[in-house]
Amino acid sequence: MMPRMPDNLGSGSRKIAAKRSRTESDARRESAAKRGYGHAWQRTRKHILRRDPVCVIAGCNEAATEVDHIVPKRMGGLDTPENLQGLCKHHHSIKTANESAFKPGYSFRRVVVCGPPASGKTTWVSDNAEPGDLVFDWDALATCLFGRRPWQSTKSDGFVLSMLRDQLISYLQLNAGNSNVFIIISDYENAGVVARRLSGSVQVMDATHDECINRVEADAERSPVLKEHIKAINAWFGQYATSVIQGEGGS
To answer: 166-195: per-residue pLDDT in tens?
Structure first.
């Protein structure tokens, strides 16, 4: 009868082989500097971690320890502050794993569409989005989910929609390779914040003040809240018109 080999005898050989494989892989891999992670990157990394000390994913309170490219480098992402975000190790691992499924050169658009009431935001998205694109339209969701027009929505409706939008933004922050995305937001400052979180752009509607007023006055469905809409239009142009003209926040 042949003597029985101890069960753990082969484990040492496997460990040696695994170590040799890692060593050979490291030898083939370019240096950190050649991959774009030299001294300049280290300075940028420190800056981003000071800017984002906590993981930027909504609901996560873990310390940010990783600096992530919102649009990955292999997909054309740059080392600019606008394309970098601080993530905890857990969320960075999730995002990296998701990105591995997409081929180099894959491109997509992330557009935050902004403007006052009746400025044509939904129409613009309808004209520019393609089948399969992801669209977050507050007004359409309010009607679909609650059976009410947006101006009939309750505070509870608004809370639910805000939560859904925040969850979508967090999802997009972890899934860089999604399809084209269009998010409609009336508030100009908030639109800029969301666009920066997604390394996207802001598309501001070019409708004039008078055009918006004429549209709400001609819309029979808005007649019960006509005064409120005119007030909202006046407030939007009063607060943001100068910023839009100067091009602050991008477009």
So the answer is: 989 888 888 766 578 999 999 999 999 899
Query: Alpha helices, DSSP H only, in the chain?
Result: 9-28, 39-51, 89-99, 121-128, 138-146, 155-174, 188-197, 209-218, 226-246
Evaluate whether the domain defined by 110-246 bears CATH number 3.40.50.300. yes
Report DSSP state, residue 34. T
Per residue in 20-69, pLDDT tens?
A: 655 555 555 555 555 556 789 999 999 999 999 999 998 899 999 999 99
* Measured CA distances, 190 to 41, 183, 184, 187, 251 (Å): 29, 11, 11, 5, 13
3-state secondary structure of 22: helix
Distance of CA 151 to the CA centre of its chain: 27
Q: Tokens 């409708």 label which residue?
A: 207
Q: Is 91 left (phi over 0), alpha (psi -120 to 50) or beta?
A: alpha
Q: Alpha carbon of 31 to those of 19, 77, 141: distances in Å? A: 19, 20, 49
Cβ atoms within 10 Å of 76's Cβ, excluding its own = 13
Q: Which residues contact 150 (CB under 8 A, 6 or more apart)?
A: 138, 139, 142, 143
- Domain spans, the chain: 39-99, 110-246
- Look-up of token digits 């050989």: 13
**Of 14, 81, 71, whose CA–CA distance to 43 is shortest?**
81
247: left (phi over 0), alpha (psi -120 to 50) or beta: left
- One-letter amino acid identity for 104? P
